[in-house]
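$ fold --in a.seq
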Amino acid sequence: MDLTEQLPVATPLVAGLLRLPATARARLTALSGVLAEFCERRELRLTKVLMEDPRVAPDRAIPDLIATRPVLYGIVLPSLAHLGTAELARERQQQLADVGTRLLLVRGAGAGSRADAPGRRIGRLTR
């Protein structure tokens, strides 16, 4: 009988989302690094980082991430603020929860936890 530790296991795939002005290149680089480090510590593979500019209407980032849901373990964010304004963030959390997409937070309320539904914490991830 094989031990599970000896069997090949696929690394869970996640995508990152950053809500930053397009001109904030240094911040984009820094936060992309934070997401990558978070994923590395948790043995997740960061497949892409999408950026939304808050000065323009919300784009297709969340619908595009939802469309790739079958291959994604979840979406990683530096904090819930990267989902948008409070109203937009609640709406997006609900959209993600409705399709069962995990939301992983690096910091802030619920950091290191899955926030699968608005205002709901689901267990703590180990560091």
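$ fold --in b.seq
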Amino acid sequence: MPTRPSTPAHPAADPARPIASRPHRTPARLVALGGLGVAVTTALEVLTAPYSPAVRAYPVNGAVHTAKVIAVVAFVAGVLMLAARLREPLGRLGSAAMAVVGLATVGGAVPYSLVEAFLDPSLPPAEADQRLEAIYAEQTWIAGVSTVALPLVLVGLVTLAVVALRRRLVPAWAPIASLVALPVAVLAGIAGEAGLPIPHPPAWLFLGLSAYGIALLRTPTAIGARSPVPA
């Protein structure tokens, strides 16, 4: 009497399965939590940064910037993982834009935050501000890297949003949120220059970028399941 071949309860994963079809929950969490973390810690600088006109809690500024570095690492790790896993549906342009956003974030955020993280928290805010100015005057490369990094983040952000909208890779509200963050950041920068206690522009940019991670967590198979639109 012939017997039916048994089927394993847990079949082995197919090693040939393309990486773009694997779950995106882990990198999506990193992008969402990391982006929100950068946004929140940047917003807190209104109260903690020694150069802020509304500084009230400078002694915890170092802790805020330490948390910001951790958030940046999480965000960048998630972005680079998605850029690698979604290379095919994103296309070369979209994947490169995502990688540029991640790598430029490191150059733009980490050096400044590390300097402030190790600044003496017992200094009066005015003296701490002078100390920062002296460090930046000595370490001119920090401002130089940031000057290059910010435009790269902006170009990558816009390019990624256009690709995501055109290829319908995630719900449209995510790339739209990242684009809306741009004019909001510009207005925040103008308000900050006028002396108003408004969170710095990066807070709004990364709030918008975190939308990609949130969108993927809500629809974790959206990218892998949809057919890309030809470039």
